[in-house]
Design brief:
The protein has 14 helices and ten strands. By secondary structure, the chain is mainly alpha-helical. Strands 1-8 form a two-stranded antiparallel ribbon.
Amino acid sequence: MKHLAQAPGEQLDGSGIPAHERVDPFPRKVCIPFPLQRGSAGVRPEDAEEFAGGGGAGFGHGKLSVSYFVCGISYIGNHEEIETQGTKASTYIRHTTYDIRTTNVLKDPRPRYAMEVITVNQLILLPCAALAASVFLHACALKLFPELGLLDFPQRYGLWRKAIPYPTGLVAVVLFLLFFFAIQPLLADPWSTQHTGLVVSTVLLALATLLDDRRQLSAKVRLQVQVLCALIIFGTGTRIYSLTNPLEFLGFERIQLDTLVIPSPLLSDPSVVGALFTVLWLGLTINALNWFDGIPGQVSVLAVIGFLTIGGLSLSPRVGQPELALMSFLLAGIAAGGLLFDFPPAKVLMGDSGAMFYGLLLGVLTIYAGGKVATAFLVLGVPLIDFLIVIFRRIIKRTPVMRGGGKNEHLHHRLLSRGWSERQVILLTAVLGSVFGITALFLTTVEKFLAALVLFLIMVGLSRYSRT
């Protein structure tokens, strides 16, 4: 164990460059993963957000009142002792090759990393490898799935065409798990509790959706599995502690979700409100993408746009999480490979296995990015708002909320009835998702709220236009 205070110019990694001269390839606000011990420091959550730039925990964000490691990047810069409410704060900073303890809070908002965690070459080459692997495995599925009897049921939906390979969402799940295992050595905190929880939830959801694709599970069972997956993810430390209030004029800047805390050191003192929000958010992203899978290729397009947007956001100065960017770009490559096969006219169908998987990962990565719910809402605004509109219609008609079957409920079905082609509907989805998603990267919270209102009005207008 080495102390920075003992040798300010010491070479910690054998590079020959003093620690204070190493330059951060991904400048960001400093993320302080503290405290080392519960009850120490006396630092407020809002102070953590000032440094961390977000209210979530996962690949780099967290509040100061939790006692587990959440950052994943070592910072070496100006270590100046500061006081918060009269008490000195202590931090614990971990690196892949060594640990550093210091009794000082990092005050410099533009710290220098000890060494690069993720390189630019890795950010480019690994997603390209994921794309190539996805194309290869989807091509294999064209031949292997029919031999294994993994085909869709066109007659079930009144279609009179030849059955095609289904559900190829399994390819996406398997590829993600393989690449996620492979990149663990590159991460600053390999096989953290959060990573393990994500893998367990992904496998559980994949098994349930595979069974649903083949034998059709009840809506109740599907919902129970989704809630269980969300609770596993929350219980293993992937959480949103607060949200920025877009209506700041109401008198409070942040909406705190870390209330009604249940004392449990094993689960890092989970909060009831935080758990409820996580379940609702992940349930919304999972089901929104699944319900929007009425046209082949539509979910793949949204997934590519969503993951690229989150990846770009992760490399921005206000988030600065290259590890999260790598994970996002890997998923974008996997989804892009599938898009080449399920874009109309589709050669394969991803099924619930793919749609729910992408919905889960988009929701989780949003939390990893520091609770960027507003950004995700703009990227996925079309399926999310369509989901809410369909739910509203079902409530008005007093039909089961989680059971479909109604004619022309979703926007894409209604547009098809108006004479639109499948490709035209996908193009509309892609344009709206891209425009609002890219715009969200440069907007303030209030501006994102206004953009969401504009998107909502567009969706309502399209809904009225598509009435038959």
